[in-house]
Write a structure and sequence with these properties.
This protein is mainly beta. It has one domain (34-162): Lipocalin, CATH 2.40.128. Helix content is 13%, strand content 40%. The longest helix is centred in the N-terminal third of the chain and has 17 residues, at 2-18. The mean pLDDT is 86.
């Protein structure tokens, strides 16, 4: 009976000491303005497709659909007055002809909405873009289903590089 007691005391001391952690001090600073991170011109760097029905969830690089020699890559410009413009020579137009833009939640954006006269497009943000980031990803998630039971079938990821001003 003595052996378990001798073993238990050091074990309790070890657990007690491991619970003492140094408290973190300091400030994180002001929150980053997510909206200002999007402002400016962006040029398409890559376009990928992920088949969600494939068991391997394979990602294919289809950049050549939009980026071709002799043509300018797609450009998106997000303006400070909440408007956006697009310049595109090749490939399917997923972003409309331009209009207004907004986040679903300005503090913690998950989606970007591209608002046009007749339609509103909504895309997932692949990343939060801070004012000093040089890359952004916008995802278009295609789904099918009825009655609220939607199944994602394909994810298109557009990766853009910031054009220095």
């Amino acid at each position: 009976m003595r052996f378990p007691l001798l073993f238990l005391i050091p074990l309790l001391i070890a657990f007690g000491l491991s619970g003492c952690k140094q408290e973190i001090t300091g400030e994180l600073g002001d929150p980053i303005d997510k909206r200002s991170g999007f402002l400016g011109a962006w040029e398409l760097a890559s376009f990928t497709q992920q088949d969600m029905n494939n068991p391997l969830k394979e990602v294919r690089d289809l950049s050549s659909v939009f980026i071709q020699e002799g043509t300018s890559p797609m450009r998106l410009t997000f303006n400070d007055d909440d408007t956006y413009e697009i310049a595109q020579e090749v490939g399917r137009n997923y972003f409309g002809d331009g209009g207004d833009w907004a986040f679903d939640d300005p503090e913690f954006p998950t989606f970007i909405r591209l608002i046009q006269e007749t339609d509103t497009l909504q895309y997932n943000l692949g990343t939060t873009v801070r004012p000093y980031d040089d890359q952004m990803t916008i995802e278009y998630r295609r789904s099918c289903g009825e009655g609220g039971a939607f199944l994602e079938t394909v994810v298109y990821a557009f990766t853009f590089n910031r054009i220095p001003q």
